[in-house]
Design brief:
globular; mainly alpha; about 425 residues
């Protein structure tokens, strides 16, 4: 065991796991007060379910065996017959590597929750998660990150999850929200803007485990991934803020936080392959593409993606995945077979990135639609209109995020009533 690399990956795993909590705060702060508990629960519960799925079948389907380059096999159900102490090329135990990859299987489905909050039945979402993990996520991991995967064989460059995580989650959220339909009464009020900022900061911190950890050890590539992640995020944040100031006249916190996430998403597939200058431009173009889609095209396609999961993760993920073909360079990472277009490699890698991105979109779209239609035969997908109106916190969980506020208001009103009607000495 290489103790340094092993410790590095354990810390990275903890950071990625922490991201799910950050996402719960981010989404919980963005939704209206009546759907806060349901939203945060829907995100956080992914943790437990994804852990059980990964240990039972996920690791085996992702990394063990090979069926036509699409998926692994079930020969190692519940990690049986896998030497957990065996070491990979970085001298990291299989158990630690599996734990790191498991955290990706947790955060990815939590991302698409933001597309359908406030109107989907909780039991449908849980059932969908199970089928989605087995039929979409694990095949995507095998296709891209297994040495025997079909897309890996084509030469895709996806350092930390542009296709596997962000395009996957974005397209899934888009299809889910399209089939589910629009909200009865969309609300632009946010429960807690401080929560949105807290969630964004937690996600940014956790993203270093996400991106740098994908180097699977302490190396120049891990350091490069950390710095490119930082630069891309900074340029994306400032770009969104400037766009808001030019177009709407005022910067706003939600916009700055959204731009921050776009920069994190866009650099994810490229962070271990590009220079700092490349990451700067990837951050800018990722934000530009997401901003244009959210503000000018989202309403035209008529799909109610509640928290812009496709607009942020899908669009920025697609942009970042394609831009790898422009900015990738062997100067940063010698394992690259072909330099990007801007580094003398021609159009080859651009073509590979476009092809594999299109394959990902088609595969995820088709499988998501099929899973939804099959599940709808057995489980209602959408809550009743009256349940949606009162909010899913009450109808699905029978809890409130701010039950203490109502008590405080009642006490305040009662004190006010007493002070207004308190008799003086003359009345006595």
């Amino acid at each position: 065991m290489n103790v340094t690399n092993t410790l590095f990956l354990i810390i990275s795993s903890i950071l990625v796991l922490f991201m799910t909590t950050g996402l719960a705060f981010f989404y919980g702060g963005l939704v209206s007060q009546k759907n806060v508990v349901n939203t945060m629960l829907s995100v956080f519960v992914m943790t437990g379910i994804a852990i059980i799925l990964w240990i039972s079948v996920g690791y085996s389907l992702s990394f063990e065996g090979n069926i036509y380059g699409i998926i692994g096999n079930l020969h190692n159900f519940f990690m049986n017959n896998i030497r957990m102490g065996s070491l990979n090329d970085q001298k990291i135990p299989t158990m630690v590597f599996s734990g790191f990859e498991m955290t990706f299987a947790i955060i990815t489905p939590a991302l698409f929750v933001g597309s359908i909050v406030g109107r989907i039945k909780f039991n449908f979402l849980l059932s969908f998660l199970i089928l989605w993990s087995v039929l979409i996520y694990y095949p995507m991991v095998h296709l891209v990150w297994s040495s025997q995967g079909l897309l890996a064989g084509l030469g895709i460059l996806d350092f930390a999850g542009g296709t596997v995580v962000h395009i996957n989650a974005g397209i899934t959220g888009l299809i889910l929200s399209a089939v589910l339909g629009k909200r009865i009464k969309p609300s632009n009020t946010h429960y807690s803007l401080p929560w949105v900022l807290i969630g964004t900061v937690i996600l940014w911190i956790g993203w270093y485990g996400f991106n740098s950890g994908s180097a699977l050890g302490i190396s120049n590539i891990a350091v490069q991934a950390a710095m490119t992640t930082t630069v891309s995020t900074g340029s994306a944040m400032v770009t969104w803020m400037i766009l808001d100031m030019i177009i709407s006249g005022k910067p706003n916190l939600v916009g700055v936080c959204t731009g921050t996430l776009c920069g994190l998403v866009g650099i994810t597939p490229a962070c271990g392959f590009v220079t700092l200058a490349g990451s700067f431009w990837i951050g800018i173009f990722s934000t530009l593409s997401s901003y244009i889609f959210i503000h000018y095209f989202k309403d035209k396609i008529g799909i109610d993606d509640t928290l812009d999961v496709f607009g942020c993760h899908g669009i920025s993920g697609i942009t970042g995945s394609i831009l790898v073909g422009l900015f990738a360079t062997k100067y940063v990472n010698p394992i690259i077979s072909h330099n990007g277009l801007f580094y003398g490699g021609g159009w080859y890698q651009v073509g590979i990135q476009v092809l594999t991105t299109v394959i990902t979109i088609i595969f995820v779209s088709a499988m998501t639609f099929i899973i939804i239609k099959v599940l709808c035969l057995f489980i209602p997908m959408r809550v009743e209109p009256k349940e949606e109106k009162i909010g899913l916190d009450k109808s699905e969980q029978d809890e409130e995020a701010d039950y203490t506020v109502n008590i405080s208001n009642q006490l305040a009103n009662s004190h006010s009533y007493v002070s207004m009607h308190k008799p003086d000495q003359r009345d006595r």
